[in-house]
Each structure stands twice: as structure tokens, then as C-alpha cells.
Amino acid sequence: MMQTIDTNRPPYGILAVLMVGAFIAFLNNTLLNIALPAIMADFHVEAPTVQWLTTGYMLINGILIPATAFLIQKYSVRRLFIVAMGLFTLGTILAGAAHIFPLLLMGRMTQASGSAILMPLLMNVMLVSFPVEKRGTAMGFFGLIMMGAPAIGPTLSGWIVEHYDWRMLFHFLTPIAIAVFIGGLLLLKDKKEKSDIRLDIYSLLLSSVGFGSLLYGFSSAGNKGWESPLVYGTIIIGAVSLVVFILRQKKQEKPMLNFGVFKYPMYALSITISMVIAMALFSGMILTPIYVQTLRGISPMDAGLLMLPGALIMAVMSPITGRLFDKFGGRVLAIMGLAIITITSYYFSQLTFETTYMHLIVLYSIRMFGMSMVMMPVSTNGLNQLPRSFYPHGTAMNNTMQQMSGAIGTALLITVMSNRTQTHATELASTLAPNATTPEAMAEFNQQIMMMAMLEGINDAFFVTVFISAVALVLAVFIKRAKQAEEPVGDGKVTLSPKLVEN
């Protein structure tokens, strides 16, 4: 049965509830980063252990997001939202009440299980709620949430951690999450026609092992190093599982995740550009805090404030770029945005110990302005080419690939920074003569060398993002305004999605 929607009257009430829920879920992604040192001290755990609060969150997302294509086709928006928001709320309460680290980790992973469903669900509802010619504006507001909330997270958490206990990060989210959950119960009234689609357990298992292992392997590479058996072992297991998963999906009459989306050229191009941009985006979000806090001694609060103007610019620009996309298409916006990202990435590769705080704010804000012109227009243009029955698969694939590229990009850039720091430290030690006569003076000299080496290592990592951005810039030249493809007929591989929303 074909999926129908009243495009003259989009379900704004449903969208409002979904957007608020998605906002606090996305905000939660980066809310904990600045609080990790305080949590380490409180629970007396080491960095590799506390890192599971972020790695575990990413792993759950990697396991569940691929399954959302099946869930969206099988269940109603109301049921999925209530389950997802219920899990997120339960996880928030658990984490806020945690008196031991395992309970905090359990709460965090429960949060992630709800958050993983919310983003593809909201994106899918927006795709079926608006016609192609109005979709850019609608997705612009979605971009406001997707990019704005995680960017605001460090500033908000910096302020909370500086003035209150880290548990307040969860306590302030709890009443909002409960209110959104109740709002979903009262406002979401959509019905779902009966679907005979069944979940293939082997596909779910292969997908979980494949995406989960790859995410874990790449996200661990920055800390453990590429030579660690745990790193390359999990990456190999993940890659093999993923190959078997893809082959199994091709044979399935009703695949859990349909890789046929890559047959549509604008979608394939958009997801490639989005993955490259996710790598570049993470360079700013990972390397900038390391530079300002570790090398410059700037407080967590001020480090968060440094990123706030960029977050606000993205929030303001997302709806504007959505309207511009509807009028001019994605290519012009993508080329301009990627040119800005490439140029600002180069200037970020020229940081010194004298770089002013204001210079960093301006540079980071301009870079975020460029990001706002690329992320949602490129994704929307690709999704516009898909037939409606492919929307759940397209949104799930989009979100999964962005998670993967974020983990790969982070691992790549941290590795570049670490390796180049060691190289520069060796070079500096051999060229600079120590003017030290006491062990204390020698220790201070060595510390200065490591600081100088780390600065150069960060600059080298940013320089790599110049080339990453340039690749995306070249690809953007080939973007064309996408037209919705017709539904495939008679291939026996696609289950047309039943009606998602009834007004």
C-alpha cells in the first residue's frame, strides 16, 4: 500500500512534540563531555573507564539506528515515540540518581537506546509530511535541532559543572523529558495499518556486531593506538560482519536495511559528502577544546562559551539555508559552505600560543556558518530523490553513516595529532639545547617541548581536515537538484511503507 500524507496540512502538533524530544536527546550527546573529569574524581575511575560514558552511548546508537528502518515501517509514530522517550526519561532518572559508576553507565546506555530511535523517526515524519518543494525549509528547522543542540551542550554543561554537582546535568533534563513524554501520550494520535513485515533476527545480529564493532574499534583507536589487537581485531570483526549483513540484505525479500538506496546517484553522492563533512566537523569539536583547555589553560566554562556563537549562528542559519535550498537547490549552498570550511580549516592549522580568544571565536563561528550551508541541504537533496517507500531506509542509512564517519574522523584526527606530537617532540628535543642545571628545570624544559609539540600536532591534524574538506568541495560540484524517483515495481525487495500519520 502506498504511503499517503496530507501535504496541505502537515501535522505540526506531532512535529513540535518530536522536535522537543529530539532536541533534548541531541543536547544529551555532548552534555557530559566537560563533566568527565568531575565524574572520574567522584567515582575514583580512570580515563579509559569513564570514556565508556561516551563510547557506550555511541555503540548503542550504532546498534539501534540501522534497525529503525524496520521499526518505522512496523510500528506507529506514537508507539515508537512513547517507547523512545520513555527509555530516554528512565535513563536520565537512573543516571541522575547513580551512586556507583555501573549504574551511571546503565542510565547513559538506556538514554542512548531512546535517543537512537528519535532522530530517524523525526526525519522520516518530516519527509512524508512535506512536499519536495517545501522540504528544504522543514529540514532546515530539523538541522537547527540536529546541529544546534550538541553545539550548545558544552557551554551549558560547563556552566552547570562550574556552579553545581555534575548530577545536575541529568536533574535539569528529567522534568523536561517527563513533560515531553506526557505531551506525546496526549498529542500523538496517529494510527498504523497492520503490517506483516517481520524482523530477521540474523540480520539484526549481524548489523549489531558489524556497526557496533566498527564504531568501538575506531573510537578506541585514539586512546589505545592502531597497533592494539583490540582495535584492529574489532574493526576486522565489524567489517566481516557488515559484508555478510549486506549480502544477506540483498537476498532478503523484505530487507531490514535496504542498500538499494545507493542506486540513486544523488542520494549516494549526498551521503558521501555528509560523511566527509562529519569528519571535518568533529575536528573542530574535538581538537578545539584540547587546544584551548590543555595548551592555553582556558576554563571549561570559557571553552564552552567560545563555541556558543557558532552554535547560535547555526541555529539561526539552518531555517534560512532551508529556504535558500528550496529556491536555489543544494549545489550553490554546498560549494559556498565547503569553500568556507576549507579556508577556515587552513587558518585553524596555523594556531599559536598567542592566538587571541576573540580570534578563535570568530574563526570557529565562520566555520560553523559554512557548516550550516552544507549539512542539511546536502542530506535533503539526496533524500528527495528516494521513492517514499525508501524513506525509512534512507534516513536510517544517513544517520548510521554519519555515526560511523564521526567515529572514523575522530580516531583519524586523534591519531594524526598523537603521532605528529611525538615526531615534533623528538625533533624539538634534538634541536633545542636545554638551559637547565637542576632536575626541576629539566622537567620544566621537557614540559615546554611537549606543549610546543602538541600545538604542532593539533595544527597538523587541522591541516588534514583542509584536504578532507577539499574532497567534499570537489564532490559538491556534481550535485544536481534531485527529482523524486518512481516506486520500484516487481523487484520483490521493497515493502511499501503503510500510512505513518493520519490527521
From TrEMBL:
It is a multi-pass membrane protein. Residues 14-484 form the Major facilitator superfamily (MFS) profile domain. PROSITE patterns: MFS. Its main location: membrane. Belongs to the major facilitator superfamily. EmrB family. The chain crosses the membrane at residues 12-32, 52-73, 80-101, 113-132, 139-160, 166-187, 199-218, 230-247, 267-292, 304-325, 332-349, 361-378, 461-479. GO terms for cellular component: plasma membrane. This is DHA2 family efflux MFS transporter permease subunit. Keywords: Cell membrane, Membrane, Transmembrane, Transmembrane helix, Transport. Gene3D superfamilies: MFS general substrate transporter like domains, Multidrug resistance protein D. It comes from the Bacteria.
